[in-house]
Amino acid sequence: MSQTLSVTLDVVVPALNAAPTLAAALRALDEGRRCGLVGEVLAVDGGSRDGTRAVAQEGGARVLESPPGRGLQLVAGAAAATSPWILFLHADTVLEAGWAVAVREFMAAPGSEDRAAVFRFTLDDADPRARRIERLARWRGRALALPYGDQGLLISRGLYDALGGFRPLPLMEDVDFVRRVGRRGLVELDVAALTSAARYRAGGWWLRPLRNLAILLLYFLGLSPETLKRLYG
Predict the structure, then answer these.
(1) Are residues 117 and 204 in contact, defined by beta-carbon separation less than 8 angstroms?
(2) CATH number of the domain that 183 lies in?
(3) pLDDT grade, residue 7 (50/70/90)?
(4) Residue 185 DSSP label
(5) How far apart are CA 148 and CA 195, in angstroms?
(6) How far apart are the C-alpha atoms of 179 and 199, rounded to whole Å?
(7) Whole-angstrom Cα distance, residue 54 to residue 56?
């Protein structure tokens, strides 16, 4: 692939006490830097008390400060991004090798400015229960057109602004936004987004997915994100 491609993409990574996982996530982005795809990586810190900011700087990211809350951090990162495309990525998600080629092909496809792309949800654990979580994520994406936030979100600046961007919600900011993108506007790229399974190991391979589905159902029933945040903990 040519090394002289023009910069077209900024990456926004909201982070909070993410030092153990952030370095690997940023290293994976080097692939996009080397081919000229990625311009700036913006790590938006929500008040970390570990070494998150230092890890971000060592990984080549520009660190922004934000009040805690992923919705607020995404809003701040998007406001600072200047490239015509934005990739939103969680701090514990590592993109599979070859992701830059897939992203470039998506962005070059006709009509891509009116669509958004996500990656394939994968957990970094060999436990068979992790495969069940991945199947559940695929079902959620196909049946409900609601991909996980862990799958990243690639979107043109024009479409992001036209849809009103992320809202500064304490929870469900990803669901709120992809609902505005709509089923016809979402494309899943055949590239894995390898996400830490630590939350499932700590919260329970059965209990955490059930709790997540319960929170999603309550959201659709009309409970406010503020109320859901208190329930979610």
Answers:
(1) no
(2) 3.90.550.10
(3) low
(4) G
(5) 11
(6) 25
(7) 5
